[in-house]
Task: structure prediction
Amino acid sequence: MKKWIVLIVLLFPATLLANPVVFDPFSSIRLVLIIGSLLWLEAAVITIILCFCRMEIVPSFIAMFAGNLAIYFAIFLPVLSAVNNLLIAEATIVTIDGAFIKIISTFDSFQMEDFKGLKWRTAFICAIVGNALSYYVGAVIIG
Result:
């Protein structure tokens, strides 16, 4: 039964055929569902990677999802509309995500008992992998 739920959650945005870069985020319920799915996927992937770095799973996932949501609406959309260049907007998001991951790793509530610290390089690799996967899945869904 769990396999079907995962399949439905992953394929549901594909049936909606919306592009989170092209449309206004408040004009379509399809867009909201796709953005939510992509941000959820990105948060899940980053959390899995951070789990291997000895960070707590649930607090990290909640922080990453909320952080990605805030970063998308407060930074990505304004930067994208200002520069009208997706590469610059994505590079900005990866940089901010990496810094956000590093910042949350300094709080005790996100650390397991044997946490030894998170390097900047690891934080940026997590951000790159999460954002690349999110971008790729979004491109596959719309194309």
